[in-house]
């Protein structure tokens, strides 16, 4: 895991919940906007071996800063790593011609997360996880048990896309 020091605290919590803790995470120094420093990032990703996830930010919580995706994406791809974007605040910048340039290159990521409650005024738990690789997402989320009904052939099975089975998908209507 490679992540900037000024990432949102919930990202570090999620890493801990996943069992990765704090010691296995490579934390990079950031600039005055909370963005990863590209020379430090290039050095860190060149040294990692094995499966690696890079977490970048689109809209740092305190400054609104955006990591430099145009510089990060090629380095991530070259290393064969996975790029996740925490876009809770800033991913929505892509919808405005005035500020979309801030997220230039973000489309090169493998996954994105954002929140409806930040800008769309939806309920607090209206979060969105967007994956480039549908099969990877399904493999990570699929829950199977003998008492759970299987979806009909060709029918979308919601148990392949969420970690819980009894929670409403408040983000779906938006």
Task: Describe what you observe in this structure.
It is a single chain. The protein is α/β, with parallel strands linked by helices and about 170 residues long. The chain has a single domain (about 1-130), classed as Aspartate Aminotransferase, domain 2, CATH 3.40.640. About 25% of the residues lie in helices and about 15% in strands. A 6-stranded mixed sheet has the order 2-1-3-4-5-6. It is globular and about 50 Å long.
Number of helices: 5
Described by the principal axes of the CA atoms, the overall outline is globular
Strand content: 5-15%
| Termini Cα gap | 31 Å
Order of neighbouring strands in the sheet with most strands: 2-1-3-4-5-6
By CATH's scheme, which homologous superfamily applies? Answer: Type I PLP-dependent aspartate aminotransferase-like (Major domain)
What is the strand tally? 6
């Amino acid at each position: 895991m490679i992540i900037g020091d000024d990432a949102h605290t919930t990202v570090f919590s999620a890493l801990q919940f996943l069992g990765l803790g704090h010691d296995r995470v490579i934390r990079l120094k950031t600039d005055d906007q909370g963005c990863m420093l590209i020379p430090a990032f290039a050095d860190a990703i060149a040294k990692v071996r094995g499966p690696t996830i890079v977490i970048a930010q689109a809209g740092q919580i305190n400054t609104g800063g955006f990591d430099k995706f145009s510089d990060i994406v090629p380095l991530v791809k070259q290393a064969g790593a996975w790029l996740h974007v925490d876009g809770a605040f800033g991913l929505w910048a892509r919808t405005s011609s005035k500020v979309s340039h801030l997220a230039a290159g973000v489309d090169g990521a493998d996954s994105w997360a954002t929140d409806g409650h930040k800008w769309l005024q939806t309920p607090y738990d209206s979060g969105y996880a967007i994956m480039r690789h549908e099969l990877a997402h399904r493999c990570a989320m699929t829950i199977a048990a003998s008492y759970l009904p299987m979806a009909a052939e060709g029918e979308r099975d919601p148990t392949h896309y969420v970690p819980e089975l009894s929670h409403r998908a408040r983000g779906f209507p938006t």
